[in-house]
Amino acid sequence: MSGDLRDKTALELGQLIRERQMSSPEVTRAFLDAAEADFVKAQDDETKMNAYASLNKEDALAQAEAVQKHIDAGEFLSPVAGVPVAIKDIICTKEGTTTASSKILTGFRAPYDAGVIEKMREAGLVFLGKTNMDEFAMGSSTETSYLGITRNPWNLSRVPGGSSGGSAAAVAAGLAPFALGSDTGGSIRQPSAFTNLTGMKPTYGSVSRYGLMAYASSLDQIGPMAKDARDAAVLLSIISGRDERDSTQVMEGPFNFCEILHPESGAEDDGRLDGKKIGVPRNYFEMPGMADDVRARVYEAAETFRTLGAEVEEFELPLVDYAVPTYLIVACAEASSNLSRYDGVKYGFRSPSAETIKDVYYRTRSEGFGTEVKRRIILGSFVLSSGYFDAYYKKALQVRGLIRQAFDKALGTYDLILTPTTPTTAFEIGGKIDDPLAMYLADIFTTSVNLTGLPGVSAPCGFGEGGMPAGMQLIGRAWEDGALLDAIARYQRVTGWHKRRPNEMTADGYGHRTETAPEGTSTQEEEPSAYDQLFASLEGGEA
Amino acid sequence: MEIDEKLIEYLADLSRLELSPEERGARKKDLEDILAYMEKLNELDTEGLPEMTHPFEAANRFREDAVVNGDRAEELLAGAPDKNGSYFRVPRTVEE
Q1: A180-191: per-residue pLDDT in tens?
Q2: A346 vs B42: CB contact, 8 Å cut-off?
Q3: How many C-beta atoms lie closer than 10 Å to residue B59's C-beta?
Q4: Which helix (H) or strand (E) holds A150?
Q5: A82, A310, A352, A443: least CB-packed within 10 angstroms?
Q6: Interface of A with B in 388-417 (CB under 8 A)
Q7: Domains with residue ranges and CATH for chain A
Q8: pTM score, two decimals?
Q9: What Å distances lie between residue B66 and A499, B61, B75, CA to CA?
Q10: In chain B, which residues have their Cβ closer than 8 Å to the Cβ of A248?
Q11: Which of A205, A366, A399 lies at the smallest CB-CB distance from B44?
């Protein structure tokens, strides 16, 4: 029962709750119990997924009870009211701790909710806990967390990707129906690709960053990680839109994804993509290090888009080689400035050996930050220091403009760009952690999307060697986030990759899962009015 | 480029970090490797091109600079490592 329940999408769970087949506390408890079974395992237990940094069991159940009262009173909050969700440990919530998986924020309790959290509360979502991540979102494998590594539910000896690896593992293993991540250079899309999820980095400026601990402010964006495009769409529609407290949050209303959410909306056009032009950058597939299995799966996805009626064409998208060095300079420069706030005075950890004010700063930071964070702060200090500023930082900002021009040109011709999300499937734990450059190159196809501000989504497109999931990335024009999710939703109507769940879950007793795939779980009749109501209420400024 | 001991010390100081001798060696090597990789950008001629600091130019939205929150000193001090009444407390910063 529990396993089947935890295979369902968030929208399916929302419907069960709305139709009173289950209550929000019942659904919440099922996920909490599964999450807790993993959470309590010893840190050195090799079967421990370690998806969560902290669980907020009592708060979650109290929240579920409160939402249930609204539902019982016949109030409509959203199509996913009463459904639980996991939150990356870098997004502030009043409940529990928010530590960015860093020693320097040990025990930090945020005195306020992030903007996205306020919006999710109004939509009746229930917060299960905070998910593990690379420290301050600096990493691509969730191995730099102060709280220990997270394992990939598809193969416990592999990384789940990063930095939102805990969110990815939680959703993939059925320890949360969906989750929030944050993406600075690929931190939502790369772990989504590694764990068979649909994860989206929205257009910069569509989602509030208020209450998101800053890593690189001109690149950071919060986004959804989910089992399919429809769940991602509903979560993104809830968190997007106006927040006065983030001056870079410039989009007025929330995204209206009504047509994606209505399963019947494709009826008139048969769910096809006629008239859409999809560009496939040939040179991305020829990069050194590009794995054969991922390349083949993404080309197969291109064929599927063609059978759906899209015009698919190969082309050259220049400058891919320059994206990672440009990203590193920009991200580290912004990080060295943003992380100066962690000084042992205002919150979190202070070195117990500090005697002078200088000790408070230097020792707290030296003992409180991990190696990767120090590496990036020092690199950032270097590229911003006088004498090197022009040669590195200024140069990177100029190249950033060139990359943007290249994408604008491509998106003048194509509606969507299809690439691999990552050059390989999930790599072995320990495989790259001692080689920073190799680790940075795991983000070669994703960083451009942050540098340019454009929207990008990763979605499952099949499996590679060892049965590991492969991910494709769609990139689109600014503010046309709906076009990406719509194309993925149509792809997911004719393919089943996104419905596959990790098998280990049965074998080691994580999830009490049945052997049968969750076929036909999305066949129930939907209530179209639920989505109309959602968008009407969001656009009215209240929900 | 070659990173000497003096530069590493200077960068650690700018970063408000104390590095052990082992860490200094490791960071020196990282920096040399990563900077060598960044040299790649010099293949591109960017003479006179504008600098893109932000995804969408002039996109900032401004609001009135008005106080909207009440007195939350106690709440905000709750997470401080050391405090005294409604103040953060730190070791003496000025000699008597």
Answers
A1: 999 999 999 999
A2: no
A3: 15
A4: none
A5: A352
A6: 392, 394-402, 404
A7: 2-329+394-530 (3.90.1300.10)
A8: 0.93
A9: 50, 15, 21
A10: 54, 59-61
A11: A399
**Which residue reads 């800053």 in tokens?**
A214
Percent of chain A with pLDDT over 70: 91
A365 lies within 8 A of chain B by CB: yes
**Distance, in angstroms, between B64 CA and closest chain A CA?**
10
CB atoms within 10 A of CB A285: 17
Question: H helices within A339-470, ranges in order?
Answer: 357-368, 371-384, 389, 395-413, 436-440, 447-452
β-bridge pairing A416-420 and A277-281: parallel
The verdict on a CB contact (< 8 Å) between A362 and B37 is no
Q: Compute the distance between CA of residue A162 and CA of residue A134 in angstroms, rounded to an integer.
A: 6
Residues in chain B: 96
Question: Quick one: which H or E segment has residue A84?
Answer: strand A84-88
Cβ atoms < 10 Å from Cβ of A112: 17
Q: Are A35 and A202 in contact (CB under 8 A)?
A: no
pLDDT at B62 over 90: no
Q: Are A118 and A38 contacting, i.e. CB atoms less than 8 angstroms apart?
A: no
Q: Name the maximum alpha-carbon separation found in chain A.
A: 72
In the stretch 307-336 of chain A, residues with CB closer than 8 A to chain B read: 321-322, 325-326, 328-329, 336
ipTM score of complex:
0.95
Contacts of A366 in chain B (CB under 8 A): 17-19
Would you tell me which residues 366-385 of chain A have a C-beta closer than 8 angstroms to some C-beta of chain B? 366, 369, 371, 374-375, 377-382, 385
Backbone angles phi, psi at A461, to 5 degrees: -140, 25
Tokens of A447: 């960083």
Cβ–Cβ contact A244 with B under 8 A: yes
Residue of A nearest to B58 (CA): A248
Task: Kindly provide the residue ranges of all beta strands, DSSP E only, lying in A275-354, ordered along the sequence.
Answer: 277-281, 311-315
Which residues of A are designated catalytic? 88, 163, 187
Residue type at A30? A
Nearest to A365 among B16, B31, B53 (CB): B16
3-class secondary-structure state, position A240? strand
pLDDT digits (tens, 9 = 90+) for B6-34: 999 999 999 999 999 999 999 999 999 99
Instruction: Please give the Cα distance from A524 to B28 (Å, whole number).
Output: 60
Domains and CATH numbers, chain B: 5-43 (1.10.20)
For chain B, say whether A2 makes contact (Cβ under 8 Å).
no
Q: Where are the alpha helices (DSSP H) in A77-158?
A: 115-122
Inter-residue contact A190 to A422 (CB < 8 Å): yes
Q: In chain B, what's the furthest Cα-to-Cα distance?
A: 58
- pLDDT 10s digits, A51-94: 999 999 999 999 999 999 999 999 999 999 999 999 999 999 99
Size of interface A-B (CB pairs under 8 A): 154
